[in-house]
Amino acid sequence: MTFTEQDHPDQRQEELAQRLDAVQQRIQKATVAAGRDQAPELIVVTKYFPAADVQRLYRLGIRQVGENKDQEASAKAAETLQLEDLRWHFVGQLQRNKAKSVVRYATTVHSLDRPRLVTALDNAMQTALAAGEREQQLEVLLQIDLQRDAERAADAPARGGVTQDQLMPLIAAVEESANLQLRGLMAVAPLDEPAEAAFARLAELSAEVKRQVPGATWLSAGMSQDLEQAVAHGATHLRIGRDVLGQRPAAG
Ligand SMILES: *Cc1c(COP(=O)(O)O)cnc(C)c1O
Fold this sequence. Notes:
It is a single chain. By secondary structure, the chain is an alpha/beta fold. It is built from ten helices and eight strands. It has an eight-stranded parallel beta sheet with strand order 7-6-5-4-3-2-1-8. The longest helix is centred in the N-terminal third of the chain and has 23 residues, at about 10-35. The chain binds pyridoxal-5'-phosphate. Pyridoxal-5'-phosphate binds next to strand 8 and helix 10.
C-alpha cells in the first residue's frame, strides 16, 4: 500500500499556518490599538526559503511576497508562474544591471534610491512593455534612509535609501519617467534608535510627499521585530520574513 499526501499532512504547511496566524493576530491587535479601521497589507519576505514555501503560503491565502536578491527572486517567480495573482515585491538593494530582470516578475520595487536607477528601470520597462512581457507600469517606492545625520557621519552600517535632501530630486525623476508609478515610501528602521522614533519621522515625511504627489499613499515599513510600531505610524505595507517563515540560515 502506498501512502497518499493525506496520510502524511505536510508538516511545514502546518508550521507556516500557525506562524502566519500568530503574525496576523499581531497585525490585527496593532491595528485596533492604533485606532485604524484597516489593517496594512502583509508582504511575506521569502528570501532564503524555497519556492515550495511560496506555494504553501499561497495555499494559506498569501498573495504578496517579497525578495531582496534578483537571482533568487527570478528563479522562484519562474517556479511559481501558475500562481497567477501572486504579486512579487522587490525590497533589496538593486543594481542597475538587474533592472531588466526585475521588471519581468516584480509588480513593485520598494528600494528605489537613486536617479540612475530610475532611468535603468524606466528603460527596462519600455523594453518589457514593447515585448509584451508585462502590461502594467512598475509601481515604485522610494527608500528613505532613516539614520539621523549624526550617526550617518559615523560608521553605522548603511541600510540603503535616500536622505531627506535627496528625496525631492528623486521624486521629480520618477514623475518624469514614462513607465514608473510612484506609490510612496519605504524604510527599514535604523539599528541605533528605537523604531518608534524613526517611524514617526518617516510618517511626517510621508505626509509631506503625499501633499506633493497625492497618489503616493503607500508606506512600506515594519518587519518582524517592529511591525507594531510601524502599524502605529501608518504603515500601509508590512514586510515580514522571519516571524512567518522561521530563522534564516544566514544573516540577510
Ligand atoms: C529581510 C527583509 C525584511 C523581512 O525582515 P524580517 O526581520 O525577516 O521580518 C523586510 N525588509 C527588507 C528590506 C528585508 O531585506
